[in-house]
Each structure stands twice: as C-alpha cells, then as structure tokens.
Fold this sequence. Notes:
By secondary structure, this protein is an all-alpha fold. It has one domain. It is built from four helices and no strands. It has helices at 8-17, 20-35, 49-68, 77-92. The radius of gyration is 15 Å and the shape is elongated. The mean pLDDT is 94.
Amino acid sequence: MDTSRFEIANFIAEAIKKDFTNLFIHCENELKWLDGIKFNTASQYRDWEWRIKEYREFIHEFTYILHTGNKPSGMKESDFKRTKPIIEALVEKGQLKSTILNIYSPTT
C-alpha cells in the first residue's frame, strides 16, 4: 500500500498550489474520507493507524485555521509552523488578508 497519501509534507506541497475554495473543499473531503477508515483486523490501513490519525489531526487543525483564522489551541507548535507556507501562498494569491500572518508571530 502506498502510504505517501498520509504524509503531511505531501499535503502541504499540494495545498500550496490550491486556491482557497479548492483547498477548503479538499480538506473537508479528505476529513470525510479519513473519518470513514476503520482500523479493524481486516483493514488494509490497520498497520498505518498511527500515521493516518496523525495526518487526520493535522488536516483537522489546519481546516480550523481556514475556518477561524486562529491557531488551534491543541495543535503541536511544530505542526502549526508547517502551515505557514500554505497561508502565505493564499495571502500572495490575494485570497486571505495579510493580517492572518499575525497568528504566526509570538505574543509577548
């Protein structure tokens, strides 16, 4: 089984290329698909459960950023930093205001 689908780096590379609407739809569809995966003994995904759950959590939390423009409180800092290039690409395309980048600035 090709597990590259569950690589966060691959998601980020694809996400950077999408416009806001297509990215949002992609995230929602991906979450629906991931939520349908079963990890029982007959599942082809059973051995990849940890990776799939980590990937799903990243997509879920990134979708929260798209919804709210805020950092998810439970998101790992390393994962949060990985979302910045996607948001920067959307700002460059004029699809998000540049002020959203303030969420990546440390608060004092």
